[in-house]
Each structure stands twice: as structure tokens, then as C-alpha cells.
């Protein structure tokens, strides 16, 4: 059976796996973005706190994904829980680092001007600092998403959702007629999803970043 014949015969299952993969990455990125930006906001004013946040999230990223999921299984069980936990933890570093760098890179004169207009600290953060720091934050989100697309495939080890199940089925049946087709289908699906997500981020950037800041 050719690859395209295999894809046609397994179309329904592949579409379901693709949807589950995209959904898992999207939801985990939402949580990682909220936590990452919050950590950045809480630590960027302090040199040691910012460095500590970056170091801790970088240390998490050094743990092999298979080992991370294996360590989480006794705590969270199989299925969605270890997948979500691992993906959120892995997605933090680029967002935290870029949030800190972006916020620290805001022109102090602009912040002083906002203070002179009577803006509170929270108002300055929301209306001045975060909008100016948004381009690097969005870049961090894009990097995290690309990483999580691949890491999410390992979630199949813990009975997690997504295209990793197709890859693992192919690996476990190496030598059979459709083993390579299974691995290729899962891998190409992840690559295509990554490209789609990145294109969406490019569009978001064009819609949310003023042309002057992009330049």
C-alpha cells in the first residue's frame, strides 16, 4: 500500500489525531503564555529574580521529554494530565525569557512620561510596557509552539492524545507493511500543523504590532 493510499484509508483517524494534537498544543500554549508573562512581569524589575526565573525554566527544559513524562505518570496517571503538565513546563522558558528581555528593553523615558501623566504602576505596565514588549513576547510564544509540536508526540508514551500515537504505532510495528507509512503520516502531520500555527502567529503579529514598532 502506498503512503497516499494509507492516508486515504486512515483519513478519519488521522484527522482526529491531528485535531487532538493541535488542541493539546493550543491549550497548553495558552496556559504557558499566561504563566510565562506573569513570571516575567513579577521578576523583570529585579536582576536576581529575573535570572532565577530564567534559570529555573531553562533547567526544566534540559530534562528529556520522555523522562519528564515518565516521572509525571506516577503522580498524574496516564492520559491528558501528564501531557498537559509536561507541555506547559516545557513551553515556559522562551516566553519567560522574552517577556523579561522585552519589558527591560522598554525605553525608560516613555515610562517616565507615562508616570508624569499620572498613570499608576499597573496602568503603565498594561498600557505602555506590555504593548511595547509584545513583539519579543510573541516571538517567544512562536518558539515555544514549535518546540511543543514535536514534544507533544512523546505524549503517546503516556497514552496522551495526538499524532504521536500514529508514530508510536509505526515504531512498534517496524517490519510490517504500513509501519513506515504510520511514522510518515504522524511526522508530516506535525510538520504541517507547525507551519499552520506559525502562519497564524505571523498574522497575529501583523494585526497587533504597529508598523512603527515592527520596523
From TrEMBL:
<feature type="transmembrane region" description="Helical">
    <location>
        <begin position="147"/>
        <end position="163"/>
    </location>
</feature>
<keyword id="KW-0812">Transmembrane</keyword>
<feature type="transmembrane region" description="Helical">
    <location>
        <begin position="79"/>
        <end position="96"/>
    </location>
</feature>
<dbReference type="InterPro" id="IPR051204">
    <property type="entry name" value="ABC_transp_perm/SBD"/>
</dbReference>
<comment type="similarity">
    <text>Belongs to the binding-protein-dependent transport system permease family.</text>
</comment>
<keyword id="KW-0813">Transport</keyword>
<feature type="transmembrane region" description="Helical">
    <location>
        <begin position="51"/>
        <end position="73"/>
    </location>
</feature>
<feature type="transmembrane region" description="Helical">
    <location>
        <begin position="24"/>
        <end position="44"/>
    </location>
</feature>
<dbReference type="InterPro" id="IPR000515">
    <property type="entry name" value="MetI-like"/>
</dbReference>
<feature type="domain" description="ABC transmembrane type-1">
    <location>
        <begin position="18"/>
        <end position="201"/>
    </location>
</feature>
<feature type="transmembrane region" description="Helical">
    <location>
        <begin position="183"/>
        <end position="204"/>
    </location>
</feature>
<keyword id="KW-0472">Membrane</keyword>
<dbReference type="Pfam" id="PF00528">
    <property type="entry name" value="BPD_transp_1"/>
</dbReference>
<dbReference type="GO" id="GO:0005886">
    <property type="term" value="C:plasma membrane"/>
</dbReference>
<dbReference type="GO" id="GO:0055085">
    <property type="term" value="P:transmembrane transport"/>
</dbReference>
<keyword id="KW-1133">Transmembrane helix</keyword>
<protein>
    <submittedName>
        <fullName>ABC transporter permease</fullName>
    </submittedName>
</protein>
<dbReference type="GO" id="GO:0031460">
    <property type="term" value="P:glycine betaine transport"/>
</dbReference>
<dbReference type="InterPro" id="IPR035906">
    <property type="entry name" value="MetI-like_sf"/>
</dbReference>
Amino acid at each position: 500500500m502506498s503512503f497516499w493510499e494509507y492516508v486515504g484509508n486512515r483519513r478519519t483517524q488521522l484527522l482526529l489525531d491531528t485535531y487532538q494534537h493541535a488542541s493539546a498544543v493550543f491549550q497548553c500554549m495558552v496556559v504557558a503564555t499566561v504563566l510565562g508573562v506573569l513570571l516575567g512581569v513579577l521578576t523583570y524589575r529585579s536582576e536576581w529574580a529575573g535570572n532565577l526565573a530564567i534559570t529555573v525554566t531553562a533547567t526544566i527544559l534540559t530534562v528529556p521529554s520522555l523522562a519528564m513524562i515518565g516521572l509525571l505518570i506516577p503522580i498524574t496517571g496516564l492520559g491528558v494530565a501528564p501531557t498537559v503538565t509536561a507541555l506547559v513546563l516545557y513551553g515556559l522558558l522562551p516566553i519567560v525569557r522574552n517577556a523579561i528581555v522585552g519589558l527591560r528593553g522598554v525605553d525608560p523615558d516613555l515610562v517616565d512620561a507615562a508616570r508624569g501623566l499620572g498613570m499608576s504602576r499597573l496602568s503603565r505596565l498594561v498600557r505602555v510596557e506590555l504593548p511595547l514588549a509584545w513583539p519579543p513576547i510573541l516571538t517567544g510564544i512562536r518558539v515555544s509552539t514549535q518546540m511543543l509540536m514535536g514534544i507533544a508526540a512523546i505524549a503517546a508514551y503516556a497514552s496522551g492524545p495526538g499524532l504521536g500515537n500514529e508514530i508510536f504505532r509505526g515504531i512498534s510495528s517496524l517490519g510490517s507493511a504500513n509501519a513506515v507509512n504510520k511514522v510518515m503520516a504522524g511526522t508530516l502531520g506535525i510538520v504541517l500543523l507547525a507551519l499552520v500555527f506559525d502562519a497564524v502567529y505571523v498574522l497575529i503579529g501583523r494585526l497587533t504590532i504597529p508598523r512603527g514598532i515592527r520596523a
